[in-house]
Amino acid sequence: EGQKLIHHDVPAIPNDKYPAMAALIEDLRQRRLLDSTLVVWMGDFGRMPFVGKQGGRDHYPRAWSTVLAGGGLKTGQVIGRTDKAGGIVEDRPIGAIDFMATVCTALGIDYTADFTTPGGRPVRTVDKGEKLITELLA
Questions:
Q1: Residues 111-136 as b or e (16 or more Cβ within 10 Å = b)
Q2: Do 71 and 37 touch, CB atoms closer than 8 A?
Q3: CA-angle at 134, arms to 130 and 135, nearest 5°
Q4: Rounded mean pLDDT of the chain?
Q5: Can you give the pTM of this predicted structure?
Q6: What is the average per-residue pLDDT within 110-132?
Q7: What is the pLDDT confidence band of residue 8, given thresholds at 50, 70 and 90?
Q8: What is the pLDDT of residue 26?
Q9: Measured CA distances, 86 to 22, 71, 91 (Å)
Q10: How far apart are CA 95 and CA 78, in angstroms?
Q11: Please, where are the H alpha helices in 4-117?
Q12: CA distance 5 to 29
């Protein structure tokens, strides 16, 4: 058995492939904490959809995947699409500020607020121009 983390038509992630993630999600679910806990599983880049000159798959900032679980979000869906090779976003591109504004919203954080660094510099929680990922928000 596995955990359906992504989409109802996508097979569940087998527990033996990602045992730590599967155990975390299952534990939170059993303890009835999953709705009040946002689990974010991601990296800061993707991998090239092709083998590079040196025989590997280098960092690739144009397209990558993120798994979100719990947090009161509308889960069980895939948002966006890349081309067949996984290299070009073809549908519903989401930027870093969109993602961060959505995570802040899910956590009840005012992403439009400014704060002041210890050095006295004002900083906005999320840069302006964000577009919430409304498909995720309940």
A1: beeeeeeeeeeeeeebeeebeebeeb
A2: yes
A3: 135
A4: 85
A5: 0.77
A6: 95
A7: very low
A8: 92
A9: 25, 27, 12
A10: 16
A11: 19-30, 96-106
A12: 12
